[in-house]
Amino acid sequence: MRTYFQKLLTPSEQQKQLPLIYPLFIALLAGAIFSFALAPYHYWWLAILSPALLYACLHKRSAKQAFAIGWSYGIGLWFVGAFWLYTSIHVYGDTSAVLSVLMIAVMALVMGLFSAVQTWLYRRFFPETPLTFTPLWVLFEWAKTWVFTGFPWLFAGYAFTERYLDSYAPLFGVFGVSFVAIILACALVEILRRRIFWAIPSAVLLLGAWGASQLHFVEQKADKPLSVSLIQGNIPQDLKWLTEYQVKTLMIYAELSRSEWGRDLIVWPESSIPMFQTDIEPFLDAMKAQAQKTGTAWVTGIPYWDLPESERAQHPMYYNSIMATGEDASGLYKKQRLVPFGEYIPLSGLLSWVLPALQNDPSMSGFSRGAKDQKPLDIKSHPLGAAICYEVAYPNLTRRNAQQSDFLVTVSNDAWFTGTAGPLQHLQMVQMRAKENGRWFIRATNTGVTAFIDHNGHIVKQAPMDKTAVLRGDLPAMQGETLYMRLSDWPILGFSLFLLALGWMYRPRKVDVSFKSRR
């Protein structure tokens, strides 16, 4: 193994390559360790080491070999990094342990194709350099936000949330942070290959991170911060949608809120009201009256049946939504991005025999997608941008929701993934969205993590996980726009395409000849 690592780092063109099994194994291991760079482990340096190993494994490999190496990396990345899905599939999906693991393995095989195609393109069409490997990495991270409806998880940039490189986030978003991290990873390999000049751009990027940290795009408004209470009911997922438990769920949240009336804002989590608004109008009227009586705005997650839209569509239109009501509060936000296997079942008709327990869960198959560019909620004359659960994993969607807002709210129910890394990785994404947009984020969840996150992405307060809790705090209104809020992902995507165009134009002709000779 030591000999192989020496060969990986040797710049000689004449070296004899070892069998393909070596880079396949190292790539699989490199992908498997990547998720430990993220929450809750925070070994951020693995987000440098993991892609560095992949970059080194691709040295002088053919395009076909690169495809296999990249696929091996992707399988390790997704099987370990998204294994938190096991809880929702096995525990709450009533699926056997063996079949649950098999389903995650199939998911890893499919998602691993992103890395496979990425590395194939890299070795087929571009010269070996960090300036082609890195932009391809970033473009494929971006592709994960929309291909197959999107599964935007396990991005390199998230490893640096609240760490040195995160100062690039208000400028270029999480993909900008990923770009810098991957350049540094590849540069490390090049320096070990005695190409010392790569120390110069590395130093420039690190110095640039310090310079970016000195920039300030937003400032706090003169308005007094709102006093906010976030309610964490801790309702077990296997009881949440049972008809006989619905009234008890309402009583739990009502009792937790009893002492909070009189504060500016009370927030209940996603689907904390487990019934459609049409089935529970007396309760909603009573809560609205209580909120108005005490001068409080009330925001809650609720399944919403849009009757006028249903009549036009000639079939029921159900939405996972956030409703605002009470004193000086109004608005309804309908979720735009739904969670595969956590909220709905892709190809549910074909998979009904695999996940039988989920077929009768209204949160799994009955929701429609909300429209784009919805207006913020109106809270005490402040626009409150909203996101529900999985939506905060989509940088540009959250950016759109943040525009024209003073602060942001996300409600979630991560009880599907209790005891796993999933909820903490989810929280880390909220932190990055706060940093990107320069807005405070309040996060109310059923089981955790309920938190106040400031405009710099730092957690100010958080409630304990898997416990009933009320989290109180102040919510300042912010004004101004970050560069990312103005320009979205286009600067970093455009720069990546520019580098790839240069790489294509100035690729060595011998690279093309070498590929022809292998055919």
TrEMBL record:
Entries under PANTHER family matching the protein: APOLIPOPROTEIN N-ACYLTRANSFERASE (PTHR38686:SF1)
Job of this protein: Catalyzes the phospholipid dependent N-acylation of the N-terminal cysteine of apolipoprotein, the last step in lipoprotein maturation.
Gene Ontology MF, one: N-acyltransferase activity
Main location: membrane
Keyword Transferase among UniProt keywords: yes
Membrane-spanning parts: 20-37, 43-59, 66-86, 98-122, 134-156, 168-189, 196-217, 490-506
UniProt feature coiled coil, ranges: none
Pathway noted in the entry: Protein modification; lipoprotein biosynthesis (N-acyl transfer)
Gene that encodes it: lnt
Annotated ranges, domain CN hydrolase: 231-477
Name the UniProt record assigns to this protein: Apolipoprotein N-acyltransferase
UniProt membrane topology term: Multi-pass membrane protein
Source species taxonomy: Bacteria, Pseudomonadati, Pseudomonadota, Gammaproteobacteria, Moraxellales
